[in-house]
From TrEMBL:
Keywords of the record: NADP, Oxidoreductase
Organism: Coccomyxa viridis
Domain Enoyl reductase (ER): 2-278
Gene3D superfamilies listed in its UniProt record: Medium-chain alcohol dehydrogenases, catalytic domain, NAD(P)-binding Rossmann-like Domain
Name of the protein: Enoyl reductase (ER) domain-containing protein
Gene Ontology MF annotations: NADPH binding; oxidoreductase activity, acting on NAD(P)H
PANTHER family given in the database record: QUINONE OXIDOREDUCTASE PIG3-RELATED (PTHR48106), ZN2+-BINDING DEHYDROGENASE (PTHR48106:SF2)
Amino acid sequence: MGHARFRWLTGLSIVEECGDEATAFQPGQRVVCVPSQAWSALDGSGTWQQMMVAPEANLFSVPDNVSDRDAAQLSVTTLTVCALLEAAEAAGKDKWLVQTAGGSALGRQVISMAKHRGIKLVSLVRRAAQKDELLQLGTDAVVATDGSVGDVTAKILEATGGQGASAALDCVGGEATQAVTAALQPGASTIIYGALGGPVLQMNILDVFMGKSLKPFILRQWLSCLSDERRQAVLHESMSWLQHGIIKPYIGETFPLEEASSAAAASLREGRGGKVYIES
């Protein structure tokens, strides 16, 4: 397997040099790099650096009609949406899915893909002011989480006509996990992919007795289980969503590389809008 040396630009990369056995790409070509399970920011081998060497199997070319800013989100946000919907396979066409953080960059992409696939979606948000905007994007219902857990569960059940959801996607934790899991059908699962609300999860023991479960999701672990061929197929599908405008990434402030620390700080601000973009 050949290797390519490339310049890393947030989620987008430019090939600088190709190894003797690397034939898939050319210097100057734009690519997206899919992180390997073996890479870690803790030992300096992760993607937070300006130059890297990676196997060709971890790279995917960016079509001319996909902008740098859109492509920069593919390796994390768009791929995660693809994987989460696969993990929540019970929520298929004409079935209900519920998600927390519906107004986030990833949550908006879930809305786009749910609409594209005919999945009925309830999106939870912290601020009721986001309701009209998310309904226009295509979510079927919006529930604000400023009430008690019981209120949120009741609103989800009301939105689904009393039948409950077939699966849930949760990146918040705490009471939000309990609220969405309580609104699931017996035997359904909540996919946990984040901890915005802190490290503690809550769940009603009665839901456990009803066969409901919590399933963890980590993108790099999911990718590491795919064959090279399957990984490339997933990348191709995800990139096609960007090419054809099925998914339109939610982009926020732009910072030059020299202000990376300011960009990191901006990414932690509540209500910041879209994903922060570092431009080189």
